[in-house]
Amino acid sequence: MLKKIILSFCLGLSNVAIAKSVALSFDDGLDPSINSEAQQINEDILSTLKENKIHAIVYPSISKIGGTEGLNIISNWGKQGHRIGNHGNLHINLNKNEVNLSHYLQDMQQGHQVFSSIEGFVPRYRFPFLKEGNTLEKRDGVRKWLSTHNYQSGAVSIDASDWYYNQLFLKYQQQKDQASLDKLKQAYIFHLLDRAKYYDDLAVQTLGRSPKHVLLLHVRAINAAWLEDIIYSFKTESWEFIDSDTAYQDTIYKIQPNLLPAGESIVWNIAQIYGVKNLRYPAEDAPYEYLNLAKHGLNIEN
Ligand SMILES: [Zn+2]
């Protein structure tokens, strides 16, 4: 009996000691001809990653970065040891009825042509909006393209709504509303940690283990400003940062769920397969954040 208690105690301790692991991924990129801060935002994110010795992956989309100058900015990721994947050309939502397979494949191919020659490129494709097809033909057609081109899906396990918090960040910044920015920072970090815990708990509940996670973020001003705080907060909550190649070796990223519409976080897909109740769709979206923002003193009118 005593032996059993000691064993349980040791197992308990070892569970505590093993940190949860996460790789950072950043989508889209910015077009310097539209956003005058594009280069600075990119540099700030890269310098925080460097200071923290974290290697991440960026998934640029041609339409989001614009022309040659935008491509040069994104190329700095590869030069600094990060991975560069493919996020297509026109940032198309595959689940829209008007989007057909051949047009979508052409868009992926265009992304491949531009990004595959850059230092640091890896054949990983990040689906825009995490939408992987609303018909069998589209879903399986894209999966076939990925397999034929030796591509891996640049899947996400921790989905979040940084793009929405960024909209608020830009609004308060423009209004020079420091009080709201301070509240937003707390709300944003709480949101990211909350989503990380949510998806990790969902994985443990279904698979019985904590997988190597991939967190979805974007190359945006909010992350240039607060990435250091995000990293610090995750470390405080026992998260360990790993590089994207290590994360994508986890077998959960080999799963091709037989679901329609396809997409969202891979952990969310697994939860669906396991019959977990009350999963919202889409998994993450702006309206879900109103409550968290209100709790942090920001009442969003809508
Ligand atoms: Zn995107």
Automatic annotation (TrEMBL):
The record's listing under Gene3D superfamilies reads: Glycoside hydrolase/deacetylase (3.20.20.370)
Q: Does the keyword Metal-binding apply?
A: yes
Recorded hits in InterPro entries, A to Z, give:
Glyco_hydro/deAcase_b/a-brl, NODB_dom, Polysacc_deacetylase_ArnD
Q: Could you tell me the superkingdom of the organism this chain comes from?
A: Bacteria
**Signal peptide extent:** 1-19
Ranges for the NodB homology domain? Answer: 19-131
Keywords tagged on the record: Hydrolase, Metal-binding, Signal
Q: Which PANTHER family match?
A: CHITIN DEACETYLASE 1-RELATED, GLYCOSYL TRANSFERASE-RELATED
What's this protein's name? Polysaccharide deacetylase family protein
Origin organism is Acinetobacter albensis
